[in-house]
From TrEMBL:
Protein's recorded name: GNAT family N-acetyltransferase
GO molecular function, one term: acyltransferase activity
Stored Pfam families: Acetyltransf_1
Lineage: Bacteria, Thermotogati, Deinococcota, Deinococci, Deinococcales
Domain N-acetyltransferase: 20-200
Enzyme Commission number(s) of this protein: 2.3.1.-
Length: 343
């Protein structure tokens, strides 16, 4: 779904920019953007299994019913040289928008980033947003330099870490999964949250609002059962697998902790750690260590070809960083969420 947002003059700069609507674009056009995303990833991460252009193309149209996305592309014939996307929610954090920007490796340092970045900023202002966020990785140093040049603030620096599965301490995993006699907690394993737990899962996932936000001017997000089902559909369409482990307090029925991973069968090797959280009132009982250790053993037993797990942690999130360091996660790169105040 695309809203009728007034747009700036797309051809005011040196590079002609086109609006791009994945819903009406041809399969060839979507695949061209998918190739751009895959090529840019390969340039920054040459040692990793490559992204699959067809899957990247599918993901271009993914959004929740309350979200709006606006895509811009710079074309050279049938090839996409640069792509930008502005996304925001119509019901939550209505002061914010998030931007993504990718330029083909062979087309960098020619002003495409400045052109698209300026237009994404203008579109955010026309949508009534006062804060624009975007992310950069140290794998692409030019992105960090670009962010600094815009005057943006490094609002949430994060450490990207990797854990080689070949070196896991299996004794440690066993110790962390040991529970006392009469323990009231029960561990669940789901690829799709059962209907009977859907409301409780939505409530549990909002525990991530307690994670460090750094200097981001972001309000708490509200998670609904409908959002979870929408994510389920998008994950399946993209060819991904998501596994969630949740810990239930059998005395109350509440879900007090969870962890989730994502992986793609066609890209054997990496597994991506999503959220891990423990409800504040249930902390100090080893639930975070339990769910992390159980998930790692699950990966070893069920994910074909898995070689490492990658995760992001805010530098100020000492508790989760401590767990990950003890497990053997080591620094791999940095990821920074930037915040730009809009006039």
């Amino acid at each position: 779904m695309t809203s009728t947002l007034p747009l700036p003059d797309l051809n005011a700069g040196a590079w002609p920019v086109s609006l791009f609507d994945p819903a009406s674009a041809t399969p060839e056009q979507k695949l061209a953007v998918g190739r751009l995303l895959a090529d840019s990833f390969a340039y920054a991460n040459p040692e990793d299994p490559p992204l699959i252009p067809e899957q990247e193309a599918v993901g271009l149209s993914h959004q929740l019913p309350t979200e709006r996305k606006h895509h811009l592309v710079v074309w050279q014939g049938a090839q996409a040289l640069a792509w930008g996307c502005l996304e925001y929610d119509t019901e939550q954090n209505t002061h914010m928008a998030h931007a993504r920007l990718v330029v083909a490796p062979q087309a960098r340092r020619q002003g495409l980033g400045r052109t698209l970045g300026g237009q994404l900023r203008d579109m955010a202002m026309q949508a009534g947003r006062t804060v624009l966020t975007f992310g950069t990785t140290s794998r692409v140093p030019a992105g960090e330099a670009f962010a600094q040049a815009t005057g943006a603030q490094a609002a949430l620096p994060m450490r990207q870490s990797r854990l080689p599965l070949s070196g896991l301490d299996r004794d440690l995993l066993a110790r962390w999964q040991g529970r006392p006699e009469g323990d009231p907690y029960r561990l669940h394993l789901w690829t799709t949250v059962p209907d009977a737990y859907l409301d409780r899962a939505a409530d549990m996932m909002m525990v991530m609002n307690t994670a460090p936000k750094g200097d981001l001017e972001q309000d708490d997000w509200r998670i609904t059962p409908e959002m979870i089902r929408a994510w389920d559909a998008m994950i399946e369409e993209a060819g991904e697998v998501r596994t969630m482990m949740a810990i239930e307090d059998t005395r109350t029925g509440a879900l007090d902790a969870y962890s989730e991973i994502f992986w793609t069968p066609e890209r054997q090797g990496p597994v991506f750690q999503g959220a891990t959280a423990v409800r504040p009132g249930a902390r100090g009982q080893g639930l975070g260590k339990w769910v992390k250790a159980a998930m790692l053993e699950h990966i070893l037993a069920t994910v074909p070809g898995a070689r490492w797990v990658q995760t992001n942690n805010a530098h100020e999130n000492a508790a989760m960083l401590g767990i990950n360091v003890t497990l053997g996660f080591t620094p791999w790169s940095t990821f920074t969420e930037w915040q730009l105040k809009l006039a």
